[in-house]
Amino acid sequence: MHISAKIDYAMRALLTVANGGDDPVSADAISREQGLSIKFLESILNDLRKSGFLQSRRGANGGYVLARPADSIFVADVFRQLDGPLAEVRGLRPETAKYEGAATNLGNVWVAVRASLRNVLETITLADLLGGELPTQIKELLDTPDAWVSR
Amino acid sequence: MHISAKIDYAMRALLTVANGGDDPVSADAISREQGLSIKFLESILNDLRKSGFLQSRRGANGGYVLARPADSIFVADVFRQLDGPLAEVRGLRPETAKYEGAATNLGNVWVAVRASLRNVLETITLADLLGGELPTQIKELLDTPDAWVSR
DNA sequence: ATCATTCCTATCATTTCTATAGGGTATGTG
DNA sequence: CACATACCCTATAGAAATGATAGGAATGAT
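The joint structure predicted for all components is written out below.
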């Protein structure tokens, strides 16, 4: 799974905005705090606004605030709006890919992949990430030291 | 997560070959059974051979056989050889991406994503898929009807 | 007015993805 | 030995995605 720069930047931008509370946070401020290219960031902020995650205010002292509470924005929501479905096979939904002969059961793998991604991405909110308290089953995933090493 | 045509075709090819037992299965036969473009398939079969999954035999009655037992080839192995690491963020390993300020905890999400992918892809073998019996925790993932609908 | 800031459109270089083409090479069979 | 079969290698290429950059228009606060 390739997690794109776009999603990574979008999450960082959302967290920075959420961290600012009710005060608008400007693109420039986000760009500086997170070290992101301003122009690329601008286009992502625009996507986030159009997707209903952010509200913007123009002019002096303008910037962005969350359009919804931080505990109602799940990581999965951001993925779906900016990158499309969590899991696709050759551009198809996992459950729609049909297989013949020896590959009959392969579809089950792709559906299981999607289900396991959902278990992570649909349970974590912006508020969780700001507070540093992740859901129990995520903590369990991270508690095995094995989770932190490359294979 | 985009599961590429390459991985999809590779899995289907491996399963078809595995299904043939000790008899070599030709690229042409795989292409016909699975409905895959012959030339693209050939290049994938070559990758699979170089990666140590397949053994090839040239000439009449040639084709491919598994180079290792079907119960020792995990889906994750195929991903890693053909597509690289299971999860990457901007081309980096999940645990190496560092985050500042409000995004401090974001890295945990990516590590959790990888861990959950491992729970699926590192537990399913070619033999499981041929036999139609998947590991218990995968069955549990698939048993909820929810797993089969799009979001 | 002026300045800060978002918003819009266009462009673009690079890489990845999904192939296709053509011929070279090895091997088993008759 | 000839021949058919089938893998093997290199090169090319169109399309899409990725990760930006540029310039200026619109808006809002003071």
